[in-house]
Amino acid sequence: MVDPQTRLDKMLQKLRQRNFRITPQRIAVLKILAFSEGHPSVENIYEKVKKDFPTTSLATVYKTVTLLKELNEVLVLGFAEGSNRYDGNKPYPHPHLICTKCEKIVDPDLASLEDMTRELVSDTGFQIINHRLDFFGICPDCQKKMD
Ligand SMILES: [Zn+2]
Ligand SMILES: [Zn+2]
């Protein structure tokens, strides 16, 4: 995990450069994203922010997340079914491990990814600019519940 405080500072800095008004609600959204290990959806973020700031609207959360997306400060994971999920801790392409039962999403440490990328480049001559690598399965917690 990237140091969440460093991520939060970076996000704030970028938003300030854009003259975006930094309200306590917006800081709360940024914090959740910077500290996010679980890849929350906008709805998840909204539920959490609302506990401390009951007047927050879903639109405020959307607006903040959309701006961060434009600034490349959040990684968006889109799914055909269900809501987009967001990673504000690691806003660059990286592999994900997705539980199909509880929809938990984790970041695996995959040392072989660099080798794989190098192999692809040398085999195909492509210049790789992005990737999307999702592994689907059943997490240990859900496996326990099944037996
Ligand atoms: Zn699970
Ligand atoms: Zn991630």
Question: What report would you give on this structure?
Answer:
The protein has 147 residues and is mostly helical. Helices cover 47% and strands 11% of the residues. It is built from six helices and five strands. The strands form two sheets. It has a three-stranded mixed sheet with strand order 4-3-5, with no helix packed on it. A two-stranded antiparallel ribbon has the order 1-2. Helix 1 crosses helix 2 and helix 2 crosses helix 4. The longest helix has 14 residues. The radius of gyration is 17 Å and the shape is globular. The two termini are 31 Å apart. The mean pLDDT is 93. Bound molecules: zinc ion (2 copies). The site of one zinc ion has 7 residues, from helix 6.
Sequence-ordered SSE layout with sheet pairings:
Layout: H1 4-17, H2 24-34, H3 42-52, H4 58-70, E1 75-77, E2 85-87, E3 96-99, E4 105-106, H5 112-124, E5 134-137, H6 140-146
Parallel strand pairs: 3-5
Antiparallel strand pairs: 1-2, 3-4
Helix pairs in contact: 1-2, 2-3, 2-4, 3-4
Bound molecules: zinc ion (2 copies).
Write a concise synopsis of the structure shown.
This protein is mainly alpha-helical and 147 residues long.
What count of helical segments does DSSP give? 6
Number of strands: 5
The biggest beta sheet is recorded as:
3 strands, mixed
Give the H and E element order.
HHHHEEEEHEH
Rounded mean pLDDT is: 93
- Cross-sheet strand order for the largest sheet: 4-3-5
The residue fraction in helices comes out at 40-55%
Strand content: 5-15%
Low-confidence stretches: none
Question: Given the helix and strand composition, which structural class is it?
Answer: mainly alpha
Small ligands present? zinc ion
Distance N to C terminus: 31 Å
> From the alpha-carbon coordinates, what is the Rg to the nearest angstrom?
17 Å
Shape: globular
